[in-house]
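A common beginner's mistake is to predict each chain separately and then try to dock the pieces by hand. The better habit, illustrated here, is to supply every component at once so that their relative placement is modeled jointly.
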Amino acid sequence: MYNFLQRLSGITSFAMSTLMALAVVIALTTPFIPSSPSHTLTLQNVQTTTGRMVDPFDKQSRSAEYARLTFDLDADLTSMLNWNTKLLFAYLTVDYMTDEFNTNSVVIWDRIIRNERQARLKLRRHHNKYLLRNFAKTFEGVSPANLTLYVNPVPYLGIMYDKPLTSVGFQIPRPVKSSK
Amino acid sequence: MELLKPLFESGRIDFQGQDLAGSLATALLALSATVSLGVGFLQKTLSMTFYVYAIGVLLTYLVVLPAWPFFKRNQVNWLPRRTIGAPALVDSPNQPLSRKTLVEDVSDDNDE
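With all components supplied together, the output reads:
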């Protein structure tokens, strides 16, 4: 520290170490910020049809059972937006068990929430954004399912995690065979 | 680079001043980290934390980097230079200091 350059070098490296400590403190204290989101999830209707993906380039597509959900979602996630939140990733999954696999978790709807206006969700009679199809191409012998709302807060500094908020149980129906 | 050498070698301060500069820098940086954390949290903006911290670092530079007079209050009083005896060679006790010597012998074995 005996001349200008020595002091510049030493103090700058200590400043960078302190900056890193600051970032670590911010990342570690973020989970302790209290958040109280309100949520109401209602499942209106589930219907299953047998169909085939219309893709002219996929010659091997087989017909499978696809389920379509109609749901209402009311949520106020503004309390989850703290100073360290970059965005919230809210998504709905359908979880069920089969004989073949113990855990089946299909994301059927998601949304990215960036500010307070988008955090107030009011969905009426929404359908699933993504197709719900069992791995075995049929829903035969599938256990009762749960429609769960998860929110994943993506921080600027820190670790991401999934936070389950609410869950609705239902049974995935088999397609109705209509005779024409 | 030779032209820049006077700039880089400038800003000398004495030993007490160096201790003071180090302590002052540590305290000021810890303080700006704490203050920036508080300001950012209260303003609910993460970028505010880092802007305030950057300003704090610049303020620390302003206080510690230039050779202010309060860093030079305890100058070391070096003793005056005295004539040095030659290294202990048995056959020539008064050999003058060779220009090729890298390290001066400052022992007073050969004085008087």
